[in-house]
Amino acid sequence: MNVNFKIAKTHLLAKPKQTLVAMLGVTFGIGMFITMVSLMTGLNNFTEDLTKIASADIRMYKDITEPRPTLLDKINPKAVNLVHSVKPKNESEKIRNALQIADLLRRDPEILGVAPRLTSQVFYNFGPVKLNGSVAGVDILEEDKLFDLNSKMKEGSLSALMTTSNGLIIGSGLAKKLSAKLGDLLILTTPQGITYSMKVVGVFQLGLGEIDNVRSYANLATVQKLLGKDAGYITDLNIKTTNYREARGKAEKIQAMYGYKAEDWETANSTLLAGAIIRDIMTYSVSITLLIVAGFGIYNILNMTIYSKMKDIAILKATGFAAKDVTGIFMTQSLIIGLFGSLMGLVVGYILSLLLAQVPFDGGDLLSIDALPISFDPKFYLIGIVFGVATTAVAGWMPARKAGKIDPIEIIRGI
Amino acid sequence: MKQILLKTEGISKYFHDPQTFQVLKSIDLEVRRGEFLSLVGKSGSGKSTLMYLLSTMDMDFEGKLQINNIELTGKKPDYLARFRNEHIGFVFQFHFLLPEFTALENVMIPALKLAKFPESEIKKRAMEKLDILGIADQADKVSSKLSGGQQQRVAIARALINNPLLIMGDEPTGNLDSVNSKIVFDTFRKLTQELGQTIIAVTHDDDFAAKTDRIIEMKDGRIL
């Protein structure tokens, strides 16, 4: 065993209580970090999952809300034109050549699937009940690829929709409100006043009330018929990419290439996701504060140790230990405290996370979970230990360097 | 005539705090191998300062210092630390043992640092040194549990562990009663006569000095 390490070890073991207290400081800091980051990340992931249920990575649609230049502006672009009472033009929401665009997009290796969709507002009539909602005309197999609908079916099946031209898969909330069951016939009324009889062939539950309560899926061709549109009439293309983290950049490229608005899931859900950043800031600021406190503890204890070991340092230097050896001895002590303290912290953090994962949490109608969502990502345990050892290294560095610089003659003659 | 082990040429040293003051004035000194030499003089005569210079712990001086024909002036601190480790043993007025370690471990530490031999060999040698000093039976005791005389003998064993060219003593008997002083002196005597060890000891003790091979008396920074 290296002699510097041996001396460091002996110093630590000679005062086990003091060593333990120093370690507990780090343990507490890292334990809290792990617990908080696990909870916060669990919540963040959960919010992200929620948004992912409802939104595709990228949604392409025709944006008709952009302000439209008036004719006068086009003729006299440099003049000051005042046009009163400009009304929006009756523009079609159709994406031209949507199916061809979808085919082109599917050839892109970064894109896993493209699902065309046509959504319409409808009234659901079942007996005396009239409910407002929306019907999405989809290619159910493509839709399943993007949103994994199959696993979210409570009753019925996806394939039943393909075999039934007027089939309808309704949200669980909607089914409850209408008291509709498999095989029931619903009357759908469109804003244009067209009514159409649809048969319930399935019930889905995404776990997101705002969708389960209003949405139903029908065949694309059925909805086109319902709206009186041609077979090429598609308003949305939902796109799934290989890496949803990079959806934003991909969306910009797609928008530039096809000229239609392409919106990534983060932009679409920016309000929901804003909380994630705040939670991250909170987690790291609290953890860093705790670690700084632990760092000061180590700094103090090491300073005291060095003060009480002046004579030892003097004789070590006299008998041939260089400044770097002495610094090494005390840095070793600091790092051992940091390493063991952090390891204990990881264990404490893991246990607390396990306990938190048992805490009942009622998400209400909106969320379908029964306990706090906790992340057990090993990445954070790695960050924790690096964090803990780095803090102790910084805290130990100054006293250790001071110990290395001690002039042995001053100590030896000063006694 | 035995060969020269240590040689200085015109060593001068100044203290700058609080005022510039010349402690050592052009010291020329030669020490031969196997000599038992004592440095005496009143407080402030510069004898301790000289000893720390000779032991390479303080290299802030003018002039030249050679040990074993190696020029040591201008060498880096790490080199000097290594040189002390290998070639110079120290015995101070106070034992300066590491209190958490046993007597044996205290003796072994400088050799472990030198790492010239495997640990088992170092242990054997350390036991031999403790045996020479007659305290082999105390080897496994924690050093803080030993008596003053025993501690000083462990310190001497530690000084000997790397078979140094030179042993430096700074008042080695200053803190001991007459019985233990005699033991320490006799040990030094035995080392020089039987093993050809070179020893330079700073002392206030006139009896101790009188029995050494050569007395160097210092006054006001000069050798008389």
Automatic annotation (TrEMBL), chain A:
InterPro entries attached to this UniProt entry: ABC3_permease_C, Lipoprotein-release_system, MacB_PCD
Mark the transmembrane ranges. Answer: 20-43, 281-302, 335-360, 380-398
Q: Name one GO cellular component term.
A: plasma membrane protein complex
What processes in GO biological process is this protein linked to? lipoprotein localization to outer membrane
Membrane topology recorded in Swiss-Prot or TrEMBL = Multi-pass membrane protein
State the family it belongs to.
Belongs to the ABC-4 integral membrane protein family. LolC/E subfamily.
Protein name, entry field: Lipoprotein-releasing system permease protein
* Organism expressing this protein natively: Algoriphagus hitonicola
UniProtKB/TrEMBL annotation, chain B:
The yes or no answer to whether the keyword Manganese is present is: no
Domain ABC transporter positions: 6-224
GO CC annotation: membrane protein complex; plasma membrane
Alphabetized Pfam families for the sequence: ABC_tran
Q: Name one GO molecular function term.
A: ATP hydrolysis activity
UniProt keyword annotation of Lipoprotein present: yes
Q: Name the keywords, alphabetized.
A: ATP-binding, Lipoprotein, Nucleotide-binding, Transport
Q: Kindly give the InterPro entries that the UniProt entry links to this protein.
A: AAA+_ATPase, ABC_transporter-like_ATP-bd, ABC_transporter-like_CS, ABC_transpr_LolD-like, MacB-like_ATP-bd, P-loop_NTPase
Which segments of the protein form a coiled coil according to its record? none
Q: What protein family does this chain belong to? A: Belongs to the ABC transporter superfamily. Macrolide exporter (TC 3.A.1.122) family.
Record's protein name: Lipoprotein-releasing system ATP-binding protein
Q: What taxonomic lineage is listed for the species of origin? A: Bacteria, Pseudomonadati, Bacteroidota, Cytophagia, Cytophagales
